[in-house]
Predict the 3D structure of the following.
Amino acid sequence: MIGIFDSGSGGMSVAREIIRILPREKYFFFADNAHCPYGEKSREYIEDRARFITRFLLEKGADIIVVACNTATAAAIATLRKEFAPLKFIGMEPAVKPAALGTKSGVIGVLATAGTLKGSKYLNTKSTVDSGIKIVEHVGRGFVELVENGILEGPEAEKTIKESLEPLLEAGADTIVLGCTHYPFLIAPIRKIAGPGVSIIDPAPSVARHLKNVMEQEGLLKNDGAPGKDPDIELYSSGDRESLERIFNLIYL
Ligand code: DGL
């Protein structure tokens, strides 16, 4: 079974891509809604949550764990790999490299949480990008709350998104990296505000391909999920399930 977790329901944007390419596996998705958002929380706090959730997923029978949260990947994946070795953890990658290859204006924008932007993983990846490319960043302030509350479009969503996206567009960004797994659920208003000349990059499909490769190499693919058109996934929320169910229904109903 593939265990997937996030601070909330956003990680379903990653689960969706994984299930697309591995439709016959069994899944367990843990949304830590009671402790969401993680964005401004301390590293120790997120590490504690990540340990607790990992134990929970192991009890449920997980063979591999996807940290479908950029903030938790930044804060806790190194600790999880050390403490739960040899268990495999797949984390989120800040997609600045593909963005750097695609930009024509030479400016890429990154939207993420404060925790992700100050994490060493992001800073290291950023330091490998050609120095001729300018990277501008902004915290997607209020984005996670919009998704958790099911406000995925309309004037309120657009007003909140504009405040964080406009500084990136004004700096000349023609490519925007979504560095938080909640943000793909806001793709419609993000596209509307950014306009047709701006590419939006979601790292979820490449994380899903990476997971598939690792599972193939490790002999972990089981193909034992229930056959049928719906994914074989159990949903669990540490808090209010409503947001998780809303997102699930949006994807699969
Ligand atoms: N979905 C998460 C991420 O990718 C966490 C957002 C949050 O809880 O602040 O960063």
About this structure: The chain has two domains: 2-92+204-252, 96-201. The chain has a mean pLDDT of 96. The two ends are 23 Å apart (CA to CA). The beta strands are 2-6, 26-31, 64-67, 88-90, 107-112, 134-139, 175-179, 199-201, 232-237.
